[in-house]
Amino acid sequence: xxxxxxxxxxxxxxxxxxxxxxxxxxxxxxxxxxxxxxxxxxxxxxxxxxxxxxxxxxxxxxxxxxxxxxxxxxxxxxxxxxxxxxxxxxxxxxxxxxxxxxxxxxxxxxxxxxxxxxxxxxxxxxxxxxxxxxxxxxxxxxxxxxxxxxxxxxxxxxxxxxxxxxxxxxxxxxxxx
Length: 177
Description:
CATH class of the largest domain: Mainly Beta
Number of strands: 8
CATH topology of the largest domain: PH-domain like
Shape: elongated
Largest sheet: 5 strands, antiparallel
Number of domains: 2
CATH architecture of the largest domain: Roll
Number of helices: 3
Mean pLDDT: 87
């Protein structure tokens, strides 16, 4: 199975192999890196503002403080959703879907044999997983043109039994005389 899945990873676990799809936001900075960048911005801005205050332009320090508070608030909003993701796991006849958005986590579990995989309205829309009286929409963090490929891969994974990859077979060539 290695190399067969475009979006999924085969994970070997104690209970047998499982498929995992991990779809996340494309963020260039982690929250920790963002915090470090903000601290360095604060240091530079306050150093400049204190220089102006030293020379008698005291309003500069107040405006620098307001600016840093507003930038900090905007970065806080960004950081809350920087680690948003969707994780889909197929193992032991069960399909588990977990959505992480900010501080909220939503979890759905389906019997794999009964799951329907449908686009919500068109081929580029979110993918709707339905079964067992539940509905979950996935593909938020995937480019719209790739969602149909993900839906096809999910359908294929649900149809075929998940097994360990076949062992490597080597064919020995006869010795030359």
